Write the structure tokens for this entry.
Amino acid sequence: MNKAIVLYLHVHQPYRIRHYTIFDAGHRHDYFDSAYEDDTSNERILRKVVEKCYLPTNQHLLKLLNENPQFKLSLSITGTVLEQLERWAPEALKSFQDLVSTGRVEIVGETYHHSLAFFYSRSEFEMQVDMHRRKVEALFGQTPRVFRNTELAYNNDLAYWADQMGYKGILAEGWDPVLQWRSPNFVYQPTYTENLRLLMKNYHLSDDIAFRFGDSNWAEYPLTADKFSHWISEDPTGTNINLFMDYETFGEHQWHESGIFDFLAHLPKEWLKTEGHSFMTLSEAIDSFEPVGYIDTPQTVTWADTERDLSAWLGNPMQSTAIESLYKLQPKILEAGDLALIEDWRRLQTSDHFYYMCTKWFNDGDIHAYFSPYPSPYEGYMNFMNAYRDLQSRLIEKGVTV
Amino acid sequence: MLGWELPPHNSGGLGIACYQLCKTLSRRDIDIEFIVPYSADHGIDFMTVSAATPQGVKSISQSGFTYDSFKYTLEDGSELWLSMHDQQARYEQAVAELAATREFDIIHAHDWLTFRAALRVKQQKNCPLIAHVHSVESDRAGSKHGNPLVQEIEALGLTMADRIIAVSQHTKRAIMDDYDIPGDKIDVVYNSIDPKDMEPLDSQNVYRYLSLMKSLGYRVVVNVGRLTIQKGLPNLLQAAQLVLQKAPKTLFLIVGSGEQYYELIRQAAALGIGEYVLFTDFQRGKNWRDAFAIGDLFVLPSVSEPFGLTPLEAIGYGTPALISRQSGVSEVLRNCLRVDFWDVQEMANQIASVMQSDELRDELWSNAYKEYVQLTWERAADKMKTVYERHLATEGA
């Protein structure tokens, strides 16, 4: 039976805001420049992730690509992480370029700043998508044909937009209330679109790798490439198994000691053992399989938390105040025409800042706590708002009323 | 149990903690006789409250608070005023006489004021002594250099005790550091609060001026506590000056009395912020409750706080808290702001952030309140009972 694994990995690092006080606002504009030893040091975190994750993973992936002509995958890489790699770890950037130059790695389009601009400002959103496209073209010589929005935040409006923009495909969470009785393992078409195809994450299988892999309390622990391939083969339905996850799964969320790299190294061979099994890039899957039905998504779904909505970013009043205040500045910031100011404003749009303010401690709170460089969501909010006040004071100094 | 005060005749957290602990323990079939050094009606039915009154004394009354003098009215009608040390010696004597007529399994003594009496009874009855430490002298003095007479009593009491209870990890560390007591002799039993026992607010807040100013966009920072070196108020006033530069519509309400009272008033004036800092002196009842309620942020800037109940009371009355990291309560409360007591700049930064954002205030409070409503004294009582049982088992064997 013909069946393809569609492996898609998401690479991202934000510009974290340092401990930035009300006494800094209006005086120093260096929100993103922490001392190297601080928890919020972007340089230190990037170097650590490069060491633990990007370099070893890319080394494995390149080897797999070289050894298995049928192995393929797709990547999305945000503008903010590409900039940081260029600045602090050019060797890691080169390792990504080496993967792409095999011709079997597809780069996915998204916003440059990993923002939620789609929900606040269409013009800003389109600007950031365009910035990202140009960056990808410059560094990888590819033009993205498939789109993913930040945090896989997806709805009918986004699909309509992507269709109009000429994308061939778009990505979303294969969330049960959206799929209802259907399987995520097919190509679909979003309602109200003409040419766009929708690929939906198989979250059960994806999360087996991304979240459960190293959990020794899990009934299936330890997970081997053999066992995993067997599970997918056993499922009689579907043409394409969409394994979507953070790239940082390899070496960062699942440590080297968990055996995650061995799993990765063995998966292609185990899977390709069986006749008819293959790996496909996102575009190949879209080209190979006809859509089996329409998917209607009036409400926004994301790939986060048990709710699969935007509540991890916008669910409490601190988060909504922070993001609304920021987008309210848009006309004034753009009008002022100061590129450094515009860039700082855009860096503050990165969704991670709002994630750090999430107070849903008690259920999925552990994950939030793990990904935050601040001792509490309140610190995240205070630093952000003081940086926001600095943007305001920079505008006031230019004679703009805020 | 030997204690120094119980509500409503208490000056602060010690009496409340003793009351709540005993009340919860009494529901676990533990028979408590609580001996205080004065006679008064406490309206308590879950345990026996006795007054350790020396012979020839008709009544004893507290003139003010824990650390003030006691007035003895003698049989012949004359009056005698005693200092705390004299009072302690009389308490020891009286407790010993009382204990001679009683049967009990364990002596549980709260803080150094009762330690001399406790040691005397231990010697007399040869039963286990549990020393419960609500604060050590270095906490109260705000530095290592406390009163050497007090430290001598603490050293002796803690060394001779069969078991030590500390109200926080912070206090446990202090006991280990100050008195070279090994950590495995000390159990941490956190104080708590019983939301059911909190007197509810009524509709009209007594601080009319502050309510009016709030309607004009002002926000209120409140502190409730003794105005003593341990509480770190001078740093809060310094922070207040910085806050007012960034958030000029901020008022500071300081509720309490103590030896720093006039010094703090002078300091506020000297910093040029006298207009924005309101001192109310010591308050009880509605005035006390409404002070928590009128605040937008409660600040506990303590230099060293063994536990610190007031932030929990503030949360109960609708106000989130900023707590110094040198406070035991920050070990049990997750949803609060934290700052080192010496970091005036950061204290000001965090206060200003809350003053400028009702969203931050509300989110901080609503999450803290979810923690607050789950607080009880049950866990403390369970842990206390386990300690008792361990000692009784050892005795039996």
Q: What stands out?
A: Chain A touches chain B at residues 21-23, 316-318, 320-321, 359, 361, 375-376, 378, 381-382, 385-386 (CB under 8 Å). The first strand of chain A starts at residue 3 and ends at 11. Chain A has 17 helices and ten strands. Chain A has two domains: 3-295, 314-397.
